[in-house]
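User: Structure tokens for both sequences below?

Assistant:
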Amino acid sequence: MAAPSAPRPPRPRKEPQPLVIPRSAAEEQRLRLERLMRNPEKTVPIPEKLNEWAPRPPPEFVRDVMGSSAGAGSGEFHVYRHLRRREYQRQDFMDAMAEKQRLDEEFQKKLERNKMIAEEQTAKRRRKRQKLKEKKLQAKKNKLEQKKQEKEPDQSQERVSSEDDEDDSKEEEEKEDDAEEPSFVMGRG
């Protein structure tokens, strides 16, 4: 007889859950999630990926060798039929696996090709952006130089009032030069 043990503390009574019949797949999913979240410490069983079916390998040593001699029993045909079916199934499986492998290789090649094309396009666009940046910087420098050139004749006019006629002719020449200088225009280049 077992020794008397201390009495167990009473278990807390769980309130019975109301019976809810899900009306849609979303509601069923919601109910499952609620049930899982009631006890977050409890581990959740996650099913493992099922292995693909593979036929049995052919036998290494065949004991029931059937010859072509007459007199085979009535049961031999069924044995032959099962062996033949199994072999055809194995060959079909090998063909399907080869096809799957070929498709996977083609897909990987296509991914690599698309990746190379995308990299080339990105590099081309990067060069184009750099070119535009350089043109903008060059246009900005040209503009600053023009402003400096315009300010310099103005300062010389303030200093020397007797050379007004010469300055006017120089400014006209500079304006003509400015018109001949190429200006930066956004667009195809």
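Moving on to the next sequence.
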Amino acid sequence: MKATMLMLAGIVLLHITTIILLLVATIDNAWWITDSASTDLWGRWELTNSVWHYTNLKNYPEEYLQTVQATSVLACIFAILALFVFLAQLFTLPKGQRFTFTGILQLIACLCIMIAASIYTAELHSNETVGGYGHSYVLAWISFVLTFLLAITYLVLRKKIGCYPKKSTCNLYK
């Protein structure tokens, strides 16, 4: 029973970590960096006379940029929704059932962040020779891997016995 609780806590901790990584990747301003500029999904920060100035992303194809923005936000929404659905399913799912709906939501989040990072790679900076991908871009790809692993985990995981709000134990097995 202790191992089951540790596994459950590990899954929830990994899920929360993934959500944090997705949010940081979507919000932070380091998808593309140079010595004098830092670009995120929403704008560009340029260093002029030792002061950072915010500018709009004018030189990017709008359809690709909006797709990357939308899929990044959707990845965050689906990952957060999947966590709430998982917690709800702990108390409502019948014995022996798989966490299929949670796994599907997590798989959608995985696909969304993969689409965002892939389009960003292929379309937004493919011709630039100065600069490189920043930590937000790397976090997006790490989030992709973690959301994929969680999706597989949720699709394989089965509920062993009932979890009830008044009891402090929930036993799960694979």
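User: Anything stand out in the second?

Assistant: The mean pLDDT is 87.
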